[in-house]
Specification:
The protein is an alpha/beta fold. The chain is built from 25 helices and eleven strands. It has helices spanning 8-26, 37-60, 65-90, 99-110, 114-122, 138-165, 169-194, 196-199, 207-219, 228-248, 261-272, 282-286, 289-296, 298-316, 322-347, 356-383, 398-401, 460-476, 500-515, 536-556, 574-580, 597-602, 641-646, 648-661, 664-670; strands spanning 432-433, 443-446, 453-458, 479-485, 519-523, 560-564, 585-587, 610-611, 622-624, 626-627, 630-631. The strands form three sheets. Strands 1, 2, 3, 4, 5, 6 and 8 form a seven-stranded mixed sheet that branches. Helix 20 (536-556) links the parallel strand 5 (519-523) and strand 6. The protein starts with 7 loop residues before the first helix and ends with a helix. 50% of the residues are buried.
């Protein structure tokens, strides 16, 4: 986002870009497509930086890479380091469940791979509901720096080739950028269709936007629109394209893909229009003193605005309204003005240029400072890790199911700063299938040579039960296998969440026929829906019917089947609630907001027992968030691995009842 040759209109265009992003983040409903401001920045950046490098390459026949990166360091790192360190220090004012995520974002932002970190989080089913971090906006800065890590080297190679072959430089660079543009745009369209969450953040779906700006720089005067009237029309059309995308696009728009062409080509038109002196030319608006001042602060405003919004929401619990929204904008501009004057301008090229080696060393030092600040957060988190979790001090579910005594004065485990990572090992050892995967992966638990074989099948709610089933199977000498997949219960029907669920379900039917378990236990989230028209309530009977077909198919393969009632789900995030109120709890009547297909399908079928573990989560009409000194919930509908371990005895008793209700063969095998 730095400039080379000064053009007032570009500063005004930068102001348009940053204000668009700012309004979108403060008042999303007012400008639902305001995220396109980032795309405007990409085109401007590609235009300015390519122009700077091209002038040097034409003048010197090469590019001073060390000098280029030294300039980037002095331009970007002082202000970004200030923001990253400030966020790291303020992390402890956020709810503890967010601490680790923020620390990782400090690392990712300091090393400029924040976009890839967010892409990974966007396709992580368990991370999808996490609160947004205060550094998510660094994803766009990461893409820019990744582009500029590669593009100057390609320009040097192109310049050397042109010198050796006596080829004209600009057409060769234009061909290179055109290739990047076409390939990256094609990938952007493809990924936006097939992997929309990750496509928004990954570099290869965005490089074409920087390449577009670079193409304008390489084209030079040939890309400048001649004639005053034509300039005015081009600028008006370009600004209208940016405004239309900002106002008409929304979170439902498939983006970037084809949709990103509207704001980026609009930006290109404004750049191509150059400057116009007519009284009513839009250039006058872009070149006025206020627009240029905002444009000059654009980088710093962009750095500060999102942390200000995130911390405000975390501290107050409020979504910005009109007046506090204006307050946040004022705070962002104020912090930007301070950091630009006292930090940015101190390190930019003024007077004698600092030695390149000193700039590079300073950049390395600032990165180390950011990493050290993240390390402090990690160290605090690790210091809260509890010692041995004895049944006496941490009875967990037994406090509800067996009236076990609960010692006072013991900090709950896992601590809130570690609760998001307290998940079944299946997520880390490859046993749990992700969205899109369809081939069953056999993972064994309990006693490998056990005589009784129990198979657990289901979605992430089934995976939450894995530690309890594993502990129970090991204690009883049972063999256990588990097949779990994010967002996919075993339903012989097409689910709305993930089309691959149907294929996985068919594959699982064959797996059951091959393995021949003594008992299949099905568990699932109640929020699943079958594809079709109508509301959730109207489609619910379709899900119930699909579950019945599924169980009939399993039984036709010779399997005995039991099903589990779903566990509670809440309208709030339990760890965040516990951060504010250690006694946080919910009414049991509110903890089951959705109709559950399992008891609806099999509640009156004696051949298919329904295992109901509600009593291990709720008592006397209340569902506490901490039970027996154990933190129960890692998010609003998945319970922790630590709590799952304490569920094993109560689960065993309910399984015994289910097995006893089945025809005799499973009973004999389980004994």
């Amino acid at each position: 986002m730095s400039s080379t040759a000064f053009r007032p209109g570009i500063q005004g265009l930068r102001a348009v870009a940053v204000l668009t992003v700012l309004i979108f983040h403060v008042w999303p409903a007012a400008m639902p497509g305001g995220y396109v401001g980032v795309d405007v920045f990409f085109v401007i950046s590609g235009y300015l930086i390519t122009g700077l490098l091209l002038r040097e390459l034409e003048r010197d026949r090469t590019i001073g890479i060390a000098r280029f990166y030294a300039r980037r360091i002095r331009r970007l790192l002082p202000a970004s380091t200030l923001v990253l360190v400030a966020v790291a220090l303020l992390t402890f004012t956020l709810p503890p469940p967010q601490w680790r995520g923020v620390a990782w974002e400090v690392v990712a932002s300091a090393l400029y791979f924040e976009n890839w970190w967010l892409a990974a989080q966007s396709v992580d089913y368990l991370a999808a509901d996490n609160a947004p971090g205060p550094l998510q906006h660094f994803w766009s800065l990461s893409i820019e720096e990744q582009f500029y890590f590669v593009w100057p080297l390609l320009m040097i190679a192109g310049g050397a080739l042109c010198t050796r072959r006596n080829w004209p430089l600009r057409p060769v660079l234009g061909a290179a950028l055109g290739t990047v543009f076409v390939i990256s745009l094609a990938l952007s369209v493809h990924e936006t269709i097939h992997a929309p969450q990750a496509a928004y953040f990954v570099s290869h779906t965005r490089f074409w936007e920087l390449a577009l700006g670079g193409l304008l720089a390489v084209a030079g005067a040939r890309a400048t629109i001649p004639g005053e009237a034509a300039k005015i029309v081009a600028a008006l059309v370009g600004l209208a394209a940016i405004a239309a995308s900002a106002m008409l696009y929304s979170g439902a728009t498939a983006f970037p893909g084809y949709a990103a062409l509207l704001p980026t080509l609009g930006t290109a038109l404004v750049l191509m229009s150059g400057s116009a002196a007519a009284r009513f030319a839009p250039h006058r608006l872009l070149e006025n003193r206020a627009a240029m001042w905002i444009g000059d602060l654009a980088y710093s405003i962009y750095l500060w605005h999102w942390p200000a919004i995130v911390f405000y929401r975390a501290w107050t619990g409020n979504v910005p309204g009109l007046w506090d929204g204006f307050m946040l904008i004022a705070v962002s501009v104020f912090l930007a003005a301070l950091s630009k004057h006292y930090v940015e301008d101190r390190f930019r090229e003024r007077g004698a240029t600092p030695a390149i080696a000193r700039s590079l060393a300073g950049g390395f030092a600032t990165i180390l400072l950011c990493l050290a600040s993240a390390a402090v957060v990690f160290a605090v988190i690790e210091s809260q890790r509890p010692g041995e979790l004895t049944a006496r001090n941490y009875p967990g579910a037994a406090a509800l199911t067996d009236a076990a005594p609960v010692p006072a004065g013991i900090a709950p485990a896992p601590p809130l700063s570690q609760v998001l990572e307290d998940i079944a090992a299946a997520y880390s050892n490859g046993c749990h299938l992700d969205i899109g995967e369809t081939e069953p992966r056999v993972c064994g638990y309990g006693a490998p040579d056990g005589g009784f074989h129990i198979m657990l099948i289901g979605d992430s709610h089934a995976a939450s039960w894995l530690p309890a089933f594993d502990k129970l199977a090991g204690a009883r000498g049972w063999r256990m296998t588990a097949h779990t997949k994010s967002a996919c219960p075993m339903v012989l029907g097409r689910l709305a969440k993930d089309p691959s669920c149907f294929v996985w379900g068919e594959n699982m039917l064959r797996e059951v026929a091959r393995e021949k378990p003594d008992l299949v236990v099905l568990a699932m989230s109640a929020d699943n829906m079958i594809v079709g028209g109508g509301t959730r309530e109207e489609r619910f009977p379709l899900l119930v019917a699909a579950m019945r077909r599924t169980v009939e198919a399993l039984r036709a393969e010779g399997a005995s089947v039991a099903v589990m009632r779903d566990t509670p789900r809440f309208a709030f995030d339990p760890p965040t609630c516990l951060s504010a109120d250690p006694g946080c709890a919910a009414r049991e009547a509110d903890a089951f907001p959705l109709p559950d297909p399992m008891p609806s399908a099999f509640g009156r079928d004696p051949a298919v027992p329904v295992i109901d573990m509600t009593h291990a989560f709720c008592a006397d009409g209340t569902c506490p968030m901490v039970v027996g000194n154990v933190t129960v919930w890692r998010d609003y509908h998945h319970f922790t691995q630590t709590y799952a371990h304490t569920l094993a005895p109560a689960l065993g008793r309910e399984l015994d009842k289910a097995i006893a209700a089945l025809p005799g063969e499973p009973q004999r095998a389980a004994q």
